[in-house]
Amino acid sequence: MEITSAAAQTLLDENFAEWVRALDLTVQEAAPDHVTIRMPLAPHLARVGGIVSGQALAALADTTMVIAAVAHAGEFRPFTTTDLHTQFLRPGVGTAILCRAEVVRAGKALVFARAEMTVEDSGKTVATATATFYAP
C-alpha cells in the first residue's frame, strides 16, 4: 500500500510525542522512495544568535526518516531509532527548513536512512543526517 502525504501527516499527528508535534511539521511529499517535511522557523526554535537549534534539526531529521521508513514499508510499523548522526553545516535561518529523507536499505529488522535539510528560501543545505531504525 502506498502512503500518501495526507496519511503520513495523520500518522505524524496521531503517533508522535507532543513536543515533536509542537515543531508544527507538515508533510509535503510522501512516496515509497522519499518523504519531504517542512518545519517553519519560529522564535521557540531559535538558539542564541537567532538560528534554529540543533535539537530541532535533529528531531526534524529523525521524524522525517521514520516517516520515510513507514512510506517505504507501505504500512505503519513502530520503528525505533537505534542510531542518529547529524552533521550541522551552516546556520538555519529564514522562514522554514525542508527535510528530504530516503531509505538507503531496508532489511528484515534494520532500516538505514539518510536526510538532507535545506533552507526553504535559498535551497542551501543546513544539515545532513543518517539513522538506523529497528523494526520489530
Describe the structure.
By secondary structure, this protein is an alpha+beta fold. The protein has one domain (5-134): Roll (Thiol Ester Dehydrase, Chain A). 26% of the residues lie in helices and 39% in strands. The protein is built from three helices and six strands; from the N terminus they run H-H-E-E-H-E-E-E-E. It has a six-stranded antiparallel β-sheet. Strand 1 and strand 2 (34-40) form a beta hairpin. It is globular. The mean pLDDT is 95.
Distance between the termini: 19 Å
Instruction: Choose one word for the global shape.
Output: globular
**What are the low-pLDDT stretches, counting only 5+ consecutive residues below 50?**
none
* Residue share in helix: 25-40%
**Helix vs. strand class:** alpha+beta
Number of strands: 6
Strand order of the largest sheet: 1-2-4-5-6-3
Give the biggest sheet: 6 strands, antiparallel
Over the alpha carbons, how many angstroms does the gyration radius reach? 14 Å
Report a brief summary of the structure.
The protein is of the alpha+beta class. Helices cover 26% and strands 39% of the residues. The protein is globular, with a radius of gyration of 14 Å.
What's the arrangement of secondary structure elements?
Layout: H1 5-15, H2 18-21, E1 26-31, E2 34-40, H3 54-73, E3 80-88, E4 96-106, E5 110-119, E6 125-134
